[in-house]
Amino acid sequence: MQTPDPLLIEQHIRKDFPSLELQVHGRPLVYLDNAASTFKPLPVLDAERSFYIEKYANVHRGVHHLSQEATRCYEEARAKVAAFLGAPESDNIVFTKGCTEAINLVAQSWGRRLEPGDEVLVTAMEHHANLVPWQMICAQQGAILRIVPIDEKGQTDLEALESMLNPRSKMLAFCSISNVLGSHNPVQTMIRMAKAVGCNVLVDAAQAVAHGPIRVTELDVDFLCFSAHKMYGPTGIGILYGRRELLHSMPPWQGGGDMIREVDYQVTSYAEPPLRFEAGTPPIAQAIGLGAAVDYLQSWGWEIIMDREKALYQHLQVVLDSIPDLRKIGEATDRSSAQSFLLGQAHPYDVGLLLDSMGIAVRTGHHCAQPLMKRWNLPGTVRASVCFYNTFNELDYLGQSLLKTQRMLGHG
User: Is residue 1 part of a domain?
Assistant: First the structure.
């Protein structure tokens, strides 16, 4: 079989993303803020538009044709996500507003069983979304929040984790990939360590879901969540995967329509999961868009996506290493997608603004990881993050623009 031409693949991919044709300040856009949110391909945009025009109605309960069609499409999207993650059944998948809401759901529902003296562990590299909800529920329940340290390269200290896990450990919550450092956590190893002491596990897969396959059954994970907008899907939709027996043991987090079985003025009985956790009118079009994003990723296949992204990330490292006085933040052995850095003594915001004037979109600031920034005494960082629609030419242009930025700031 003939090997596909990488240039043809690149051209085909980029045609699917109209936003890549934008110009910023009169220059072609170079979008390197994919860890924050990815652009949307035409099939995702078309799926949402088609739903609104041809099949729109509220889901469940309705007996008319459009409601039945909308319900079918909505539940088909749930089934697609379940298959995408290798979940045993569709009912393992709860639709949420995003990864943040999914973590809050677990903290405020599952977390009600925490007792004084119980322990919740998170790593020192977590996004605020996987830290603050645990602070809140621990304060409510009298539980203890413990922080698993990371080393100078930005890797979780597994020896420290092993020493911290004990029979009081009830939840270990950690990211699969750090949004700041690009570090990969050894997910399967960390899950095994937690299970050895009877500790439940939640994996924040927001940064991982667009970059490689996830099989929840093989991982033996209790909860896993992600946001659609980081995997070429719409904003306002994410998912929580939960082990069946855990979801069935959890009380509702929010009350309202669609999450009930029967309501009286004094007592209400609740629907079975996942509807128990989906109060109110759900994000129907967004769920359908998420299903289309799953189809889109599968149409390309993980081999093409992962090979392209690996090569792009390696090239990004070569480009950054060629810039004098550039300091990379986080150099774990296993990392991908995102790279944070500082350019000499320049403030990250100044670097970001100058790059923007040259048409380059990067993220600057603390990246919703203030404790991590404080640990390394940083004001913030510049973060460049790639995905499979980026190009080598874009990364070369980033390097040229960083050299120009240094000259403009007087640091080069």
Answer: no
The DSSP element (H or E) to which 216 belongs, if any, is: helix 216-219
CB atoms within 10 A of CB 65: 10
Same domain for 123 and 197, yes or no, is yes
**pLDDT given for residue 207 in this prediction:** 97
Element at 306 (helix H, strand E): helix 302-321
DSSP designation for 183: B
What residues of the chain score a pLDDT lower than 70?
1-4, 411-412
Q: Are residues 292 and 306 in the same domain?
A: no
Ordered alpha helix ranges (H), 322-365: 348-357
Q: What are the residues facing 177 on neighbouring strands? A: 184
State which of 278, 298, 318 marks the end of a domain: 298
Q: Which of 73, 99, 138, 368 is catalytic?
A: 368
pTM here? 0.96
C-alpha angle 68/70/75, rounded to 5°? Answer: 95
What is the DSSP track for 141-174? HT-EEEEE-B-TTS-B-HHHHHHH--TTEEEEEE
392 and 250 co-located in one domain: no
141 and 275 part of one domain: yes
**Both tokens of residue 203?**
């994996």
> Which tokens hold the place of 110?
């599952």
- 197, part of any domain: yes
| pLDDT reported for residue 306 | 97
How much is the pLDDT for 210? 97
Query: What's the total number of domains in the chain?
Result: 2
Over its C-alpha atoms, the chain yields an Rg (Å, rounded) of: 22
The Cα 366–Cα 370 span in angstroms is 6
Which H or E element spans position 23? strand 23-24
Domain that holds residue 373: 6-37+301-409
Domain CATH code at residue 156: 3.40.640.10
What pLDDT sits at residue 297? 98
Asked, for residue 27, whether it belongs to a domain, the answer is yes
Task: Verify whether residue 73 is a known catalytic residue.
Answer: no
Identify whether the C-beta of residue 329 lies closer than 8 Å to the C-beta of residue 340.
Answer: yes
Confidence at residue 411, expressed as pLDDT on a 0 to 100 scale: 57
